[in-house]
Amino acid sequence: MSLRAWVMVCVGLYGSALAPAAALAADGGTDTQELKEVIVTAQKMRQTLEQVPASVSSMDGDFIRSTGVRSYAELQNYTANTNLQVSPSSTQLLIRGLGTLNDVPGLDPSVGVVVDGVVYTYPEYLTAFFYDLDRYEVLRGPQGTLFGKNVTAGLLNITTSAPEDQLLIHSEYDMRSNGNRAFRPVINLPLGPGLALRASGNFEHGDRGTLFNTDLDRREVNPQQDSGRLRLRYDSGAGWTMDLGYFVSHQEQNFDQQQLFILSPEMFALDRHYDPRFTAQLDDTTSENVPGKEAATTRGGWLAFNGDLGHPGGMSSLKITSITGVAENLIGARDLDADFSPVPFIRDSLVTPETERQFTQELRVSGAGPDLFGLGHKASFVAGLYYDNYTLSTSDDFMIEDLGAAAAYLLAAQAPGFCNSHPLLCGPGGIIPPGNLGTIAGDLGGVLSQTFNLIQQVLGQPLIPQQSAQSGLMQRTKDYAAFGQGEWFFTRHWALIGGLRYAKENRKGEPHSFSSSQLIKAIAGQQDFDLHLQRTETDFSPKAGIKYQPSVHTEGYFTWAQGYKSGGFNGRPLNPQSIEYQPEKATSFEAGFKIKDRLFDGPIRGSISLYRTHFSNLQVSTFQGTNVIVVNAAAARSQGFEADLMWLLPVRGLSLYSSFGFADARYLSYPNGLETGDGRCATGKPGPQSGTCDLTGARLPFAPQWTAALTPAYRLHLPWSVSAGAAVDLLYQGDRYLNSEDDPRQLQKQTLLINPRLVFADDVAGDWALTLGIQNLTKQVYSDQVIDQPLAPGNFAAIRIDRGRFYTANFFINFR
């Protein structure tokens, strides 16, 4: 056993590239096991995982399919320090505890998304690409030098399967005991010398849903998706290739997913008045009176050209790449019950479909040579130009559904404060028992509603006009950038790393809000305004480092990098306060070690990375009563490590995959953090202004300190060219706060998911496989957000993302 392998094992960090157990292969028909080479494009060049001086986790499509996951939210558990919540209208991505929350349209992400080389400015496009994948990569830390703005926390780099020169018909079926089912066909057609077409689809339907809405008597969170992708490739055979692609996806689901689980007795009684089956717990039910719906259609296309420019000046290679992309995400419906309850109080709907459109163009050259102008040893570089133009148009309508119910809601919501001030009337032991004010408010609201309806019938028109308010944003952004990054081995084993990106952004925004309702102005602080704003930003994002590479499969590195996330405008404003926010910046230091070797005669691939990232001018979005605002309120830092491992043990067929991470993500300075709605301060240190809380030193939200994935697997070769395998995924996430106030009531406890599975497969050509599994064996209950109930201090709703325990079956077969 080599000294390098001993060093990695003794460090005790199970690390590497998430190469799947499916990568196990026989070498020349002998009993020797080998790990397949993992090729990634994390640096805009094809490299082995061990050659990339960064924390990168990589999964191939076969491994993703074998796990039984069907979404990025499920996939996040397999990569350390990663949190992904993706939907076509609202997406939240975090890496190392840092990212952008999904409560403000138009707020640029901190985690970038790249699919087949195309940069997508908004992460909602991800939902159209979770099928027929070739590779999924997670890049951690600022990636601004190569990928530009809005990658201060990291990047998701996804590659779909490319057309091949052989006929293939692939049919895949996926079924779950909770009613979800999917059909994923692929047809690969060779059309002539060097020309091939690949067509793939994902048709997913879930009629039963995850939750039952007791007020509307219907199922909720029942995703329906019909997606298709075409990809045409021409390979000249002389170093020139062209890819032309198109994708379209329509997705929709019933969208009442908030569950009230912490309520005052008065609000509980009021909710029971409107829905006798209402429960205030995280069970399999919800109760909301608005028939919420989410629906979106995503489409786009791209043209990629790669050319070999030969070997000018003695270079080993010189290539040119052009990637042009267009895309549109049209959100046709985002209907929400904005008070999260069966009380017909506030409804939030889109005025017109929300539209995101983008055009991107990148032109770059990459090359490698035996030295740098005769100095030292091998050198490589990538340099290019980038342009994008993207627009956002969004407008929400907040409507009071029933004035009598609105009065009942407000009375019940304010009852706890009133009873605290008048304990003899309605406090403990008072004249009115706790909770009875909610019942009284419900009865009063019913009387008011009937009275208003009667007057409307007599007068032929409403006594009080419809009470509503609109708010939204129209925005156009243009970005220009020039970038370059290179490596130079100044000795045979030591290399310098350097890079720089210059970027300029022009952004125009028209935030607005209008209402004729004096009631909404009074209770929500709404103000009429229509602004025309413009911003121009420039930025330099540098990177520098050094690495030691004694062999092609061993590397140690140290890097320093900076990145920035652009400023902008609030996309859901009710008043002109806190409309504009400034850019945030990140500075990161990272040291890592990677190796591919043998341990006890078993192939092993491992990596470890240690990091510290500092954020200044951190953009924080937070919910204030009925208004979501974005402010540059804080400085923060995240420090920790990631370690990945893939090991084919000396016992043939036995493998171990693991990914461990620690992220201590905290505010370094946040004196103007918010109290909870009922005036609690998590740190016990009041802020400088009324209603604020000094959160300096507090943990960042949605950031578990510990994450881990461990998958032992065994594969047995049977007669008739069949293999049978067994594996179990142990997926751990530590506790994390699910809102920005760090209130203990918003704390999600640690979770451990156990997902066992059996796999039967074609042991020769891999042309069929059957996977049977159980997801969430121990029925862990967990949420991804806890939200204050509007205008009801001390009441909270959660958005659950677990699906309980369910059984899965996946079968695919290839015809060649």
List the helices and strands and how they pair.
Layout: H1 3-11, E1 25-26, E2 33-34, E3 39-40, E4 47-48, E5 56-60, H2 61-67, H3 72-75, E6 82-85, E7 92-95, E8 98-100, E9 111-115, E10 118-120, E11 133-140, H4 144-147, E12 154-160, E13 168-176, E14 180-192, E15 195-206, E16 211-213, E17 218-220, E18 224-235, E19 240-254, E20 258-262, H5 265-274, E21 285-286, E22 293-308, E23 317-337, E24 346-350, E25 354-369, E26 379-400, H6 403-421, H7 423-426, H8 436-459, E27 468-489, E28 494-515, H9 518-524, E29 529-530, E30 533-551, E31 554-565, E32 568-569, E33 580-581, E34 584-599, E35 602-624, E36 627-648, E37 654-669, E38 673-674, E39 692-693, E40 706-718, E41 722-733, E42 736-737, E43 747-748, E44 751-762, E45 768-775, E46 783-788, E47 796-800, E48 806-815
Helix pairs in contact: 5-6, 5-8, 6-8
Primary descriptors:
816 residues, mainly beta, 24-stranded antiparallel sheet, five-stranded mixed sheet, 9 helices, 48 strands, 11% helix, disordered N terminus
Concise structural overview:
With 816 residues, the chain is mainly beta.
Walk me through this protein's architecture.
With 816 residues, this protein is mainly beta. A hairpin with a 4-residue loop joins strand 27 (468-489) and strand 28 (494-515). The strands form ten sheets. It has a 24-stranded antiparallel beta sheet that branches. It is globular and about 90 Å long. Helix 6 (403-421) packs antiparallel against helix 8.
